[in-house]
Design goal:
Layout (H helix, E strand, L loop, with lengths): L2 H9 L6 E4 L2 E12 L5 E9 L11 E4 L14 H10 L12 H8 L4 H16 L7 H22 L3 H13 L3
Antiparallel strand pairs: 1-2, 2-3, 3-4
Helix pairs in contact: 3-5, 4-5, 5-6
């Protein structure tokens, strides 16, 4: 078994599990079994947003389990890892060079919590610097990064999204 297949096999999803895809939290609400032309059985995972909003309330996704290795879908972080990430928000970002909003936005799509925290720290530092022009594009990326991290923090810590956002902002303020 290849390493990616082992990784996917270890995930062993079941109905009710939460997953992270592109930094958003989803809930698996169904698993269908289908047979292919060769008579082999495969599972199709069905999932929808865990934190529904006006814009995503009716979204429903599905993916064959064997295709998971081609995605960046992952299980949520542990409480210990989330606490570590929140502490990393306190660390003052040292680099003076803040990439443009497009580069930062691309990092958000990697589904990496470490890169997400780094983007938040970079943008927070830039936002606090009165000498720089914090553009609307950067503000949009900051809000998106905050939303993505808040979803996972809210899920793992079992708190509301607004509380998670506030917790993240409090940690960022400690870096100032």
């Amino acid at each position: 078994m290849t390493e990616t297949k082992q990784k996917t096999a270890k995930l062993n999803f079941k109905t009710g599990d939460k997953i992270i895809h592109f930094g958003q939290v989803y809930k698996i609400f169904g698993i269908k079994k289908k047979e292919n032309k060769q008579g082999e059985s495969s599972r199709i995972l069905e999932f929808k947003p865990y934190f529904p909003s006006e814009t995503n309330r009716s979204l429903v996704f599905s993916i064959p389990e064997e295709n998971l290795e081609k995605t960046n879908i992952r299980k949520p972080l542990s409480t210990k890892t989330v606490n570590k990430l929140l502490r990393r928000l306190r660390v003052r970002f040292k680099s003076a060079d803040i990439p443009d909003a497009g580069v930062l936005r691309e990092k958000l799509d990697l589904n990496s919590s470490v890169k997400l925290v780094r983007v938040l720290r970079q943008l927070w530092r830039d936002k606090q610097n009165k000498e720089t022009n914090f553009t609307n594009s950067k503000q949009n990326v900051f809000e998106l990064a905050l939303k993505k991290l808040a979803q996972e923090v809210a899920l793992v810590k079992n708190i509301k999204l607004d509380q998670a956002k506030e917790k993240i902002k409090q940690e960022l303020k400690k870096s100032s």
